[in-house]
Amino acid sequence: MSELVTVAVDAMGGDNAPGEIVRGAVDAVNDDKRVKVFLCGQEDKIRAALQGLSYDPERIEIVHCSEVIETAEPPVMAVRRKKDSSIVKAMYMVKEGQCDALVSAGSTGAVLVGGQVIVGRIKGVERPPLAPLIPTLNGPALLLDCGANVDARSSQLVQFAKMGSIYMEKVVGIKSPRVGIVNIGAEEEKGNALVKETFPLLKATPEINFIGSVEARDLPYGVADVMVCEAFTGNVILKMYEGVAGALVSRMKEEIMNGGIAAKLGGALIKPTLKSTMKSFSTEAHGGAPLLGLNGLVVKTHGSSKAISIRNSILQCIQFKEERINDFIRESIASTES
Amino acid sequence: MSELVTVAVDAMGGDNAPGEIVRGAVDAVNDDKRVKVFLCGQEDKIRAALQGLSYDPERIEIVHCSEVIETAEPPVMAVRRKKDSSIVKAMYMVKEGQCDALVSAGSTGAVLVGGQVIVGRIKGVERPPLAPLIPTLNGPALLLDCGANVDARSSQLVQFAKMGSIYMEKVVGIKSPRVGIVNIGAEEEKGNALVKETFPLLKATPEINFIGSVEARDLPYGVADVMVCEAFTGNVILKMYEGVAGALVSRMKEEIMNGGIAAKLGGALIKPTLKSTMKSFSTEAHGGAPLLGLNGLVVKTHGSSKAISIRNSILQCIQFKEERINDFIRESIASTES
User: Fold this and answer.
1) Is residue A68's pLDDT more than 60?
2) CATH number of B5-125+293-325
3) Is the predicted pLDDT of residue A304 greater than 90, yes or no?
4) CB contact under 8 A, B269 and A273
5) Does A18 sit behind a cis peptide bond, omega within 30 degrees of 0 on the bond before it?
6) Residue A240: which of B189, B244, B262 has the nearest Cβ?
7) Who has the most CB within 10 Å: A198, A250, B86, B210?
8) What CATH number should be reported for the domain whose range is A5-125+293-337?
């Protein structure tokens, strides 16, 4: 039993809770025998969602929580007050070692706050970055930080680069991942104060494969495997992906509608291609984003997550544990501290 | 003669100089009798490019400059040393009142530096923002700052909002343009230190129509007419437009190539639609970006500008002068100073 990877799942978080969350958990348990899930949330609702699904009852357990943290709630207050919420209880299960990992599609703020305050940082880690995998023409790349840590310091960005490299190498399987710092020009002297201060520090970090500045224009083409920036920039990049792709497709559909018969026919024929292109460019394509550098694994999935994304996020925890990512992070961060 | 709008054009700047630049200038002069162009650059090359074109010789004049500033040159040094370059000479023509405006497709750095150092700022303007019009589903919107002024202060962002509002109202013709501050969440308490400091200042600026925070995801849909941010963020947004759209179309083409006969046929039929969609989403669609807040008008067009973009940028100068944009900016900035 002790070899199982145990994952606390916030069954109440996200737009499709608990139905899709519970289904995703059941799929994960059915697809991989190494995982056990603790479904945290309102017991009656979870039981109703489990109705009719078949799974190994030894590997799905319900943890009743009477409270729910809403997306709009101020996160610090919510985490402090709602001790019996699914997020907070799941966080304590990770902190106390009952679970290896936590997956939530709930309030990003509450997950970030709970991760730092309850689960806690690995010694030496200044700030835990939220690190989603972003689609590029060259395969997925890690963009960090996309969390709530705005106004970061250069030493924090260096830690992001190290943790991101470990993740891409051990979890995604990219040897010697290329690390770039997001900048507004290719030259070393370009950038804001933070980038200018961070650039030489990254250059002087032997354990990463630093390739220099990367421009936003080139990110979707996959010029780097690990893209380092502070969270304001990361957030803008992440959301521009969504916004530009969405608006472009809207405009195209509109032009097809207003076009001639050729455009309409072409539009109909191209529909499956367009759909698969959009899917391959969705920032949700690769499941949840880990919050790196915590004493345990916390994975945040998109608020609109469906079962498949929850399943993938749960299965991702297996690799994270088996590849001992946190041991590597501990070692890498400690080496700087000394 | 004195009623003509006089525009100094950097005939040597950009990837397509002097051919496309000269052609664009001729087109502008032929299309609007109110404009006179001074083509600054190497006389023999300009003469060769003018060969075979017909135009009113009273309204095209060549100003010989022996030097050229290359894109890769460090801008401050280049502007200081190359006194006889097309950019520097054109800047002096604006400064000394010989010309109302300047259009350049050359080195962005040199244009920004030259604008500040040679043409000079309007009294009270802290920093002149580079303000391109960005395509949205809702028509063009102004994104500022996209220049080199990284690490801006909140008072500067307030000035950007005011100058951007004047431009959108007077030049683009949008009444009471909606001003948003680029942020990572909709709530007032969200954001980095700069945004948090700027938000209440914008709220307390009666002459603008401040609508609060706007998220990057929503910008391409046209949620604001004036989008205020500091230049690092502006640059990332501008380049994500280009990068995401370009990569998306690449991927789509690839999927069409690898698809079945239906996808290939659909792809062929949809080609003109796709082309016009991409064109309507190009950040170059609306010609050059003004550098606002200078004693004169400096317009920077894309390095890859063709004749049409040069023509549009020159014609844009007419409206800028006739609508007395700089008088309004002077008045608006002075009102804060007092």
Assistant:
1) yes
2) 3.40.718.10
3) no
4) no
5) yes
6) B244
7) B86
8) 3.40.718.10
